[in-house]
Amino acid sequence: MVHGVLQVIIDTAAALFGGLMLLRFWIHASRVRPPMQIGNFIYILTNWLVNPLRRVIPGVGGQDWASLVGAILIAIIAAIAKSMAIIPVFMLKIVLILTLLTLFNWVVYGMMGLLILEVIFSWVNPNAPLAPLVSALNRPYLTPIRKIIPPIGGIDLSVMILFILLNIAGRLVPELILSLGR
Q1: Whether the Cβ atoms of residue 80 and residue 92 lie closer than 8 Å to each other
Q2: CA atoms of 124 and 141, how far apart (whole Å)
Q3: What angle do CA 36, 71, 22 make, to 5 degrees?
Q4: pLDDT per residue over 71-113, tens digit each?
Q5: CA-to-CA distance for 160 and 91, rounded, in angstroms?
Q6: Of 162, 166, 126, 122, which is closest to residue 146 (Cα–Cα)?
Q7: Where are the domains of the chain?
Q8: How many CA atoms lie within 13 A of 57 on its CB side?
Q9: Bridge partners of residue 155, in order along the sequence
Q10: Model's pTM, two decimal places?
Q11: Which residues contact 170 (CB under 8 A, 6 or more apart)?
Q12: Is the pLDDT of residue 114 over 90?
């Protein structure tokens, strides 16, 4: 019982901060300027780790590598905490596998969340203040699909196709990662 509660707390905190670190990295990588309130929220909640990391990890190639490394560190810490709760003896292999699974899940579910937001904005309010940000973050993944399958009768299927591909990857990649541990 206590183990389950502890795992929920660890997973929630790690997903929040790790997801914000990945979002911060992706905002910089895609050269998107978020609305001020969203940007402030992200930066205030991630500066505690990103700013110290920037002292040792410079932004090479215009990328915010400190944010990506921060997400990886949070995933490692969460994996260590979860493995310590499961098995009292520290096992590097379990931590590595849990770290990879955690990072992968954050990326897949984060991308799915952005796709769902894009669909909602396109249906409900395409002029919503966050719509351009969400669209710009999704564009690098949707553009190649749109080149292969253009809109049919004015209906863009690229979001649905990417969602299906993410679902497939979300099922296959964890199996591959877990097979590394066997």
Answers
A1: no
A2: 22
A3: 40
A4: 999 999 998 888 776 665 557 777 888 888 999 999 999 999 9
A5: 40
A6: 162
A7: 2-180
A8: 13
A9: 152
A10: 0.78
A11: 105, 108, 109
A12: yes
